[in-house]
Specification:
Blueprint lengths: L1 H9 L3 H4 L3 H14 L24 E4 L5 H9 L13 E4 L4 H15 L5 H4 L6 H20 L8 H9 L8 H4 L1 H21 L10 H25 L10 H10 L16 H8 L9 H4 L2 H19 L4 H19 L5 H16 L15 H9 L4 H14 L8 H14 L7 H9 L6
Parallel strand pairs: 1-2
Helix pairs in contact: 4-5, 7-10, 8-11, 8-15, 10-11, 10-12, 13-17, 15-16, 15-17, 16-17, 18-19, 19-20
Length: 441
């Protein structure tokens, strides 16, 4: 069977593949270390006890008799920290070695840890259920403390104002609160992991039925808050969603009703949805946002604002104009100078201009047929001839991987200077603009 596996892996006859065992093992180990999502289970018999470091390894399944040094080395395979997502490893013991583990750790650490107090090594082995309960309680308390400053009654709009800022008040507030939102996302993700780790064993961990229901409701509430803030801020597309297995756990243990996917915002962003479907697309928003007109308006505006900020380096002049238009719409809404339908039509038209500049009312000349040309046109005084000269100089001079290479960049700058002799232009500005254009890569 092993020979057949090698043959399938290398796509060679069994006799030839059998000579590549060492190569196969090396490839497997590297994938387990560097691509844990692609290789989640690694079965070994007498290998990888020493000289092997895979911090992402979280679970160790022991199904053979092991003692002393070898047993301790095996334990250490899952004892490496791996960022914020891993604080310790889990040992699943099929051979009832737990008491032997305690003895092994005690004996092995007596010499190596002579300079430490007993308390320093007392936590090398912990009860999984007790630790899982503590992790859940700590994670829940962390999220509670983070959300404590949100003003009462802490509805959807209150959370949006606290974590995103109030649209129209200070446009920079959305960016300034980014660290606060990131802390919320990370803290809630940690809470969800802690809950999923103990969800089906909470009675065994000492939770009463009332406590279980209370915790479940709190976890569901904070998950909802995180998702609404993520959507309202425009951060949704920047954050990785849970893998299917985690979604299943959350649906099973946190949500009382079957989950329903109204729209996948990873494939279709909110402002794209508005452009494509208009008011009908807003039905896909979470109920907490959808049922609150103010929260819905601020969600749309924050998403448009974030897109403008993200795209600004590509075409500063154009997106500065879009920012001014957004401010005008926000002010009109706040002054109640627009009906709801008029507001939706204006914000939809602006959204279209933001994500599809080529279809905007700017009416670019026909020759401005690429994003790069349109960006140059807007930022060099709308001079079509000058844009054509600069564009040609860049395209005919640029070399592979030119961005960041001082000599290749200088060559392009000299070509632009030579091609545009007689024009008063800012070469440094044009070079910075050119670096942002995908057309020139």
């Amino acid at each position: 069977m092993y020979r057949k596996m090698l043959a399938d892996y290398f796509e060679q006859p069994q006799d030839k593949a059998a000579a590549r065992v060492a190569e196969f093992e090396q490839a497997v180990k590297q994938r387990f270390i560097n691509e844990p999502g692609q290789m989640r289970l690694l079965i070994v018999v007498d290998k990888l006890l020493t000289g092997f470091d895979a911090p992402s390894a979280t679970y160790l399944y022991i199904d053979k008799q092991m003692v002393d040094h070898n047993l301790f080395q095996a334990i250490c395979r899952v004892n490496r920290l791996d960022g914020d997502d891993k604080e310790y490893g889990y040992i699943i013991d099929y051979k009832d070695l737990f008491h032997s583990l305690e003895k092994t750790v005690s004996e092995y650490t007596q010499g190596g840890f002579d300079g430490y107090d007993e308390a320093d090594v007392a936590g090398l082995l912990k009860d999984r259920l007790g630790q899982a309960k503590l992790d859940l309680e700590n994670a829940l308390e962390m999220v509670r403390a983070l959300c404590e400053p949100v003003k009462a009654p802490r509805n959807t709009q209150d959370y949006i104002h606290y974590f995103c800022g109030q649209t129209g008040a200070d446009p920079a507030e959305l960016l300034e609160n980014e660290t606060l939102r990131l802390t919320l996302y990370q803290s809630v993700a940690k809470l969800l992991r802690a809950f999923a780790n103990i969800a089906n064993e909470m009675p065994d961990a000492g939770f009463s039925a009332q406590e279980i229901e209370s915790v479940r409701q709190e976890v569901a509430h904070y998950e909802k808050v995180r998702d609404e803030v993520k959507l309202a801020s425009g951060d949704l597309l920047d954050m990785k969603r849970f893998e299917p297995a985690m979604r299943h756990l959350l649906d099973m243990y946190i949500r009382a009703d079957d989950s329903e996917t109204l729209v996948d915002f990873e494939d279709l962003g909110l402002i794209e949805l508005i452009v494509e479907q208009g008011a009908d697309g807003l039905d896909a928003l979470p109920a907490g946002i959808r049922n609150d007109p103010e929260a819905m308006a601020e969600t749309i505006e924050n998403n448009v604002r974030k897109t403008i900020v993200d795209e600004n380096p590509i075409n500063p002049k154009y997106y500065e104009q879009m920012s001014v238009l957004l401010d005008e719409i926000i002010e009109q809404r706040r002054q109640k100078a627009l009906s709801y339908q008029e507001y939706l039509e204006k914000i939809r038209d602006l959204s279209r201009q933001v994500i599809r500049p080529e279809q905007s009312n700017a009416q670019y000349p026909a020759a401005m047929d690429t994003q790069a040309k349109r960006a140059l046109y807007d930022n060099v005084g709308q001079d079509e001839v000058l844009v054509t000269k600069v564009d040609s100089a860049i395209r005919y001079t640029k070399k592979a991987d030119w961005v960041g290479d001082r000599f290749k960049e200088r060559e392009i700058a000299n070509a632009i200077r030579e091609e545009t002799a007689g024009y008063e232009i800012d070469i440094a500005m044009i070079m910075e603009l050119a670096k942002k254009q995908q057309d020139y890569y």
